[in-house]
Specification:
Blueprint lengths: L6 H17 L6 H10 L4 H8 L4 H7 L7 H9 L4 H12 L20 H16 L7 H8 L5 H8 L4 H12 L4
Helix pairs in contact: 1-2, 1-8, 2-7, 2-8, 3-10, 7-8, 8-10
Length: 178
Amino acid sequence: MFERFTREARAAVVLAQEEARDQGADRITATHLLLGVLTGPPADAQRLLEGTGVTVDGVRAGAGDRVLTDTDAEALRGIGIDLDAVAAAVARRFGADIRRPVRKRFRAGHIPFDTGAKKSLEVAVRNAVAHGDRSIRAEHVLFGIASCDDASVYATIETMVPLADLRSRVEALLRPAA
């Protein structure tokens, strides 16, 4: 299947693996794939992301810092839990960087894909087939990321652009010209 990936799509996957390795991660996530698309060779997907305000720095800042989405926060507020107050109390008690790893380690060997990354790639392949495309492009990978039901990557994207807006732009990009 990987042979059907274009140079840009292959680079996105390889760069995702390198990003995971550099972070000392034990799995390649959909967020790593998003970083791979952003840092790979220029492609329409990369230009689309940059045009919506999704940046490498923004993804790196959002990844790991937000676990809950704004919708989650609103639901918790409805039952009397103020996430900002909880975060402030934790920061006062334990320090602001409590969730950050002490140091990053380079991880050698094979790094498997987590469920969200696998689903992203599966959706990318299915989308390419549905459009009758002979190859899987970086745009298909981005479509897969935006459609994989991974709360972490969704929360990261939402810090920069509404997910629905990104999805509609990717879908428009993949639509064949009439």
